[in-house]
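Suppose a colleague, Dr. K., hands you the sequence of a protein chain of 330 amino acids and asks what its three-dimensional shape might be. Before reaching for any lab equipment, you can write down a predicted structure in token form. Begin with the sequence itself:
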Amino acid sequence: MNIELQAREIQPLRQTFARVATHTGDKPASRYLEAMLGAQPSEHFHYKPTWEEGFELFDKRRTAIVMNDWYALRDPRQFYYATWTMARARQQDAMEANYQFVESRQLAQKMPDALRAQVCTVLMPLRHVAFGGNMNNCQVCSRGYGTAFTAPAMFHAMDQLGVAQYLTRLGLTLEEPGALDAGKNDWLQSKAWQPLRQYVEDSLVVLDPVELFMAQNFALDGLLYPLLFTQYVDDHLALKGGTAVAMLTNFIPEWHTESARWIDAVIKVAAAESEHNRKLLTDWYGRYVERAFTAIAPIAALALADDADRAMNDVRAALDARARKAGLDI
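The predicted structure, expressed as tokens, is then:
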């Protein structure tokens, strides 16, 4: 008996989901596009929100920014839940290895007591700044429109929570739990921290999600994290024997550099959409970067003393360059 085998090519009836094909045409799409395009709820709501009359449950009118297609604000990292969790899991493994290295060799205990105390004074109140960033990005996700914009905002909110947790763990490694209470007391009482505390608390009541995105993710974080984790931790502390702190906070500058790609891309696409958007984003940047610069200046003095002015000017120049590259009139 002879068996004749033949290969037959079966053409699929469609290459991707209909909601994705609406944006890209009927062709194979990446997992990121499948997870994002067409996923924004837009109609058939049973109730309107009673807490905000005049708006739908998901409403693009909550921001003054106008986009013809809100799915244009795509994340260049192409993060959806799976890729985001896998990336963070790899970073978590690296951080655990860093902690094991530092703790096995007691590098934190070998730091001078005065230096260890200064690190806690500068970095422990930042737990509350990061928690403010978590709440603000939850707000951006809640009030924003378009999965391309709101989904990475929620990932960013959880990343900010991770930053707060790593700072907490740093405090417990360097000092006793009392370091956390001292940091909280400085956040509430110390004169140096009150301008930044006011900035964070004022941002908590900004209702426009894109304005809040600019105030928190671009203006504040764009100055604060390069100042404290590049200028202070990586450069200043390393010369004084604080390399262990750089190892135990390595996730934070790495995450900031990575997330800046998404933040810059959102601003660049929104600014390129229209002259109205570009002018509005430029106005917001000018308003919030000046406030953030003033609020952070006392912390720079606390951390870097005589070198504070140079460091502040460097991070401001770098952020202005990012704004110009994103299309803002700076």
